[in-house]
Amino acid sequence: MTDLAQPPVPDMSAPDVSAGAGMDGHLDIRVGTILEASPLSDTYRDTYRLRIDFGPHIGARTSAVRVNHRYTPSRLAGRQVCAIVNVPPRQIGPFRSEVLTLSMRDQKGEAVLIRPDSRVPDGGKLF
């Protein structure tokens, strides 16, 4: 008997973060609260540097996000977001991004940050 199911076609637009995943190859996605947000100079427009608190076990980490008019630094501070915390740091201009903050594109192609529906403890793990 032949299995007719085709393997899924990989999304080539998605970044390859598997090299930075943990030793078992899994991505560690956690929730954190944005402590600070400010424009990141010397980069694309609407790019912000974030400092995100992932709770006592992980601590505060930095991230660079490219968003749109939907988000301003004042609206980002205090917001919870989801991020991959076990990727290698990336140098973005003068800034070192330590985690990959997750987002999806809306119907206009603009970034929408991924976050929980209600407040959860910082450092909570996606399962």
Describe the structure.
The protein has one helix spanning 73-76; strands spanning 29-39, 47-53, 60-66, 80-84, 90-92, 95-97, 100-101, 103-105, 111-113. It is mostly beta strands. The protein starts with 28 loop residues before the first strand and ends in a 14-residue tail after the last strand.
Layout of SSEs?
Elements lengths: L28 E11 L7 E7 L6 E7 L6 H4 L3 E5 L5 E3 L2 E3 L2 E2 L1 E3 L5 E3 L14
Antiparallel strand pairs: 1-2, 1-4, 2-3, 4-7, 5-6, 8-9
Separation of the first and last Cα atoms: 35 Å
What structural category do the secondary elements indicate? Answer: mainly beta
| Total DSSP helices | 1
User: How much is the radius of gyration in Å?
Assistant: 16 Å
Q: Can you list the strand order of the major beta sheet? A: 3-2-1-4-7
Share of residues in strands: 25-35%
Overall outline: globular
The whole-number mean of residue pLDDT values reads: 83
Helix percent band: under 10%
Strand/helix succession:
EEEHEEEEEE
Q: Which spans have pLDDT < 50 for at least 5 consecutive residues?
A: 6-19
Largest sheet: 5 strands, antiparallel
Instruction: Say how many strands there are.
Output: 9
